[in-house]
Amino acid sequence: MTAPAPATVCPLSIDPLPTSPPGPEELAYSLTLPAAPTSAAIARAAARTVLHMHGLDDVTDAAVQVVSELTSCACRFTTADDIYISLRYRDGALRVILYDAHPRHTHPRLSAACDARRRATLRVLACVVRACHGDWGFDAAREPGGGTRLWAVLPRSGARTYGMSGERTR
User: Fold this and answer.
1) Residues 6+ apart with CB under 8 A from 79
2) Which whole-number Å values give the CA distances from 37 to 33, 50, 75, 135, in the listed order?
3) How far apart are CA 150 and CA 152, in angstroms?
4) What letter does residue 81 receive in the DSSP assignment?
5) Single pTM value for the model
6) Mean pLDDT, contiguous 10-residue spans, the chain (170 residues)
7) Are 153 and 123 in contact (CB under 8 A)?
8) Model confidence over 85-119: pLDDT tens digits?
9) Neighbour count for residue 55 (Cβ, 10 Å)
10) Largest CA distance in the chain
């Protein structure tokens, strides 16, 4: 005779596993990465995998470049040990958001100089987003702890044609 399972053991789920991959509208992922040079490679690999699993292979080239540029910039500017990245697909567009701990400057000249440095760091990102007919920017993070929020929106219709007309940025 078998003894009953102890009360501290959770029962196994009998719910069947999904049989089809998730679609684009279910894409919603967030990662916290170290503020290190290797994080851009990790973010690129994660983005490729997530986009593939959600059937968004047609936007991968543009999206991976955007993720890489934003991650590199956040790692360069942050004053903390880590950065936060979010990937969401809504209303026909991929939204990539990164948060770093670099506070927005209160002095106008310091703020303008820092913004100019950040824009210069994101020149390739600007070209990719423009080629995809998207939008991008950075501003003060509204989350607790402050810092800077960097973001890019890539419409699927524009991102899927990225690189087809020779506009691809390497």
Assistant:
1) 100, 101, 102, 103
2) 11, 21, 7, 25
3) 7
4) S
5) 0.84
6) 64 74 94 96 98 96 98 95 97 97 91 95 97 96 86 97 63
7) no
8) 999 999 999 999 999 999 888 899 999 999 999 99
9) 13
10) 80
